[in-house]
Every structure is written in C-alpha cells, then in structure tokens.
Design goal:
single chain; 68% helix; alpha+beta; 2 helices
C-alpha cells in the first residue's frame, strides 16, 4: 500500500471522525434540556422561587459528550497521520 493511499485514507477518516464528533456534541447539547424557573410577581418585579431544567437527561448528555470527545481525538490522530504520510511521500519523491 503506497504512502499516498494511506494519506488519502487517513484524510477521509479524519473528516469522518470530525463530522461524527460534531454530531455527537450537538446531540449532547440537546440532552441538556431547557432551563426553566418558577416564581411570583410582587410589585411588578419577578421573584424566582425555584429554577431547574426540563427534559434534561444527564446520563445521555455525558455519554454523547464523551463520544464526541473521543471522535475529535481520533480525528486529530488521523489528521497527524495524514500530514506525516503526505510529507514523507513528498520527501521520498525528491
């Protein structure tokens, strides 16, 4: 397998890992839910009595966030492999 083919395969893998990382991170943000607060209005001023999140799922958030981080790390590693392969291929042709 030539160095150029390895470099191209690593570049494709880098793009795929980065896209998967973005998808996982955006899905993790969706799992945080919506911030909500309750309270009363006294003399025209709103006074909060409690705050929280509606529709939050902490377990799914952590799973998707960790998965996204792993994909970004794999994308970085394959990007380094791709750059090194391209550089060594150009260096060996001189």
């Amino acid at each position: 397998m030539s160095k150029r083919l390895v470099a191209i395969a690593a570049l494709v893998a880098t793009i795929c890992f980065l896209v998967l990382g973005m998808i996982f991170k955006s899905t993790a943000e969706d799992q945080q839910g919506v911030s909500a607060s309750t309270g009363i209005i006294v003399d025209g001023n709103f006074t909060e009595t409690s705050t929280g999140r509606v529709g939050a799922n902490q377990e799914k958030y952590e799973a998707f966030n960790t998965g996204g981080t792993i994909f970004f790390i794999l994308g970085g590693i394959t990007a380094i492999v791709s750059v090194v392969s391209f550089a060594s291929d150009k260096h060996s042709k001189k």
